[in-house]
Amino acid sequence: MPMDDNKTISSPSGPDAARRDGGLLDLVRTVVIAGILAISVRTVLFEPFNIPSGSMIPTLQVGDYVWVAKYSYGYSRYALPGSPNLFEGRIFSSAPHRGDVAVFRFTKDTSIDYIKRIVGLPGDTVQMREGKLFLNGQQVPREPEGEYTAIDEHRTHMDGERYREILPGSGGHGPVAHDILKLTDEGGKNDTPEYVVPPGYFFAMGDNRDDSADSRFMGDEPQDLGFVPMENLVGQAKWIFMSVDNAHPFWQVWYWPVEIRWNRLFMGIH
Question: Which domain holds residue 205?
């Protein structure tokens, strides 16, 4: 049947098409704005991190997810996504305090994030004697809290003693009470030389004192941390917003509800 020459095929124009085009532009604009806001918040305010190892047990468990405040110590290149080499040092710098649980870049490979407790500041002397922590020549007080069994990232059970340790305050802040785990008082990490923290650095330790690669290891081995430059600081760990036991394979979805450690959600980190 021949086509009528007077007939035309309708084209997407007029008010309906304008509304569709406007809706698409609004969607794109919303996605772009949301992305910019997310990057801004992650860069300037808070960044989420997960805890992959047991070096901070009992304070942090394997499978905890924490919010880290990027503004706590100011900003270095390591606070920015991709760590671009835009400037040296820190801007809006603020000194950390003894007892802070901080995220920082590993000294031997700055693409790796570490989380430890800041124990020593510039000018401090730090030493372990027979498993006890000494700071500026004085033993750091600790009180026993009973037996404790930790489970590390390999699902290995470690039996030890839990203590309440009280680090002296700094920068006008009061003493910081926190829990530590001791598995033994033997070995080189429990009897160390007296370390003097140099200017521009800090001394970091894990709360799981006998299962932590931290500033007590000063050598040239790839895993040795040593003193940490202040520039490597990323932020201070503030809260746990999620915690998952990960005892079962991920695909066993029926275990998900029971693997969430509900009692750890929204806990402050001290």
Answer: 48-268
Contact by Cβ (8 Å): 114, 206: no
Residues 228, 192: Cα–Cα separation, whole Å: 18
By annotation, the residues acting in catalysis are: 55, 116
> Measured in Å, how far apart are the chain's first and last C-alpha atoms?
83
Instruction: Extract the tokens encoding 108.
Output: 């031997």
For residue 11, is it within any domain? no
pLDDT digits (tens, 9 = 90+) for 159-184: 999 999 999 999 889 999 999 999 99
Tokens 């990323």 map to which residue? 234
Reduced to 3 states (helix: H, G, I; strand: E, B; else coil), residue 126 is strand
Tell me, yes or no, whether 38 lies in a domain. no
The C-alpha atoms of residue 149 and residue 162 are separated, in whole angstroms, by: 9
Query: Tokens 């040795």 appear where?
Result: 224
Q: Give 266 or 77, the one with higher predicted confidence.
A: 266
Is the Cβ–Cβ distance between 195 and 127 less than 8 Å? yes
pLDDT at residue 142 tops 90: yes
Q: Which phi and psi (to 5°) does residue 72 adopt?
A: -60, -40
